[in-house]
Amino acid sequence: MKVKVLQEKCGTVGRCVIICPDLFRFQEGSKKAEALFEEVPVSLQKKCIEAAEACPNKAIAVLY
């Protein structure tokens, strides 16, 4: 499973960072989120999906 934060949609809400801080963080110098790595470890996949579903701007793309 892969994940990407769509920067043009990211509204700096930060739910993904709160839900899954091992995968998402705020970019340095910005409040926009980014994924720490593209390929999601199996141990983080459930939290990644939860974060994507919680994003009010639908800025997290999960690819299977």
Key descriptive features of the protein:
2 helices, alpha+beta, two-stranded antiparallel sheet, 23% helix, 64 residues, 22% strand, single chain
What do these coordinates show?
- This protein has 64 residues and is of the alpha+beta class.
- The chain is 23% helix and 22% strand.
- It has helices spanning 15-19, 45-54; strands at 2-5, 24-26, 33-35, 60-63.
- A two-stranded antiparallel ribbon has the order 1-4. It has a two-stranded antiparallel ribbon with strand order 2-3.
- The mean pLDDT is 96.
Number of helices: 2
Shape: globular
The chain-level structural class is: alpha+beta
Q: Specify Rg, calculated over alpha carbons.
A: 10 Å
Helix content: 10-25%
Distance between the termini: 5 Å
| Assembly state of the chains shown | single chain
Taking all residues together, what is the mean pLDDT? 96
**Tell me about the biggest sheet?**
2 strands, antiparallel
SSE map:
Layout: E1 2-5, H1 15-19, E2 24-26, E3 33-35, H2 45-54, E4 60-63
Antiparallel strand pairs: 1-4, 2-3
In short:
The chain has 64 residues and is α+β, with helices and mostly antiparallel strands. It has helices at 15-19, 45-54; strands at 2-5, 24-26, 33-35, 60-63.
